[in-house]
Amino acid sequence: MQLAILGIIVVVVVVFIALTIKIVPQQRVGVVERLGKFNRLLTPGLNILIPVIDQVRTYHDLRIQQANVPPQTVITKDNVQVQIDTIIFYQVVGPEEATYGISDYVYGVRNISTATMRQIIGKLELDETLSGREKISSDIRLALDEATEKWGVRIERVEVIDIKPPLDIQEAMDKQMKAERSKRAIVLEAEAAKQDMILRAEGDKQSKILKAEGDKEARIRQAEGMRQAQELEALGQAKAIQAVAEAEKSRIQLISSAGLDERVLAYQSFDALTEISKGAANKVFLPSSAVETLGTLGAIAEVFKASKESK
């Protein structure tokens, strides 16, 4: 009997401790109600409750979570039915609002996402729908943000996973895509051939220009070299003439300074006649001026004779 009572006491103590002590893991939070009214939030770690009076209404996961929206069939502006799969990433940022603002915020997010998607796709044609995933995702996210703000839920991201048009439309699109690719390939080949011809023509043009410029430069340098050579040759001749003139001038000045102008000339004339007489001709005709010169020779002899006597 005593053991039974002791066992009951132990069970009561264990239940009391279980109802009193609450350990909340990281990134989770609990909503506590006291006598059916919101009291406080249980934060990560050890928390103490008053048994029976305090109750944990629910726990919320504060990590980013994802909710898959079932595939939805919507009609585009040009009356084409397409099936769209989306996924929504959300996070609970207000545990109290998420508990009391809506009964099931995940269900609410899915419904708002579906309704918004129908409105958006109804304004777009099929081609715009297929190429406008980013815009569709952005518009759905904006619509969800406005609705979920008072639910304590923040929409992190909305992704349109897949857009499936009807089978016949897919086949037509495949044919169109193949035709477009064939057309693009032909255009690219023609463009490549055009670029090849242009580049070859440009290369040939540049080659001819460079060759002409090279020939021009060579001719210019050749003419410049000839001009400089002629200038140097003329300069050399001028200097030579100048040197001869200078030498002649010096010789005349020396002769003039020696006072032997006429006599030296007469002597040189005599030497010249002597050299002429040594030539192949047997006769030498002397002009009248030469006679005067020979007459002068006598004077020269007298001069040399007087010079020897004076010595």
Describe this structure in words.
With 311 residues, the chain is of the alpha+beta class. Helices cover 63% and strands 21% of the residues. It has 8 helices and 8 strands, in the order αβββββββααααβααα. It has helices at residues 2-20, 95-100, 105-122, 126-131, 133-148, 167-258, 261-277, 288-310, and strands at 21-24, 28-34, 37-42, 45-48, 54-61, 65-75, 81-92, 153-164. The strands form 3 sheets. Strands 3-2-5 form a 3-stranded antiparallel β-sheet. The chain has a 3-stranded antiparallel β-sheet with strand order 6-7-8. Helix 3 (105-122) crosses helix 5 and helix 7 packs across helix 8 (288-310). The termini are far apart. This is SPFH/Band 7/PHB domain protein. Keywords: Membrane, Transmembrane, Transmembrane helix. The chain crosses the membrane at residues 6-24.
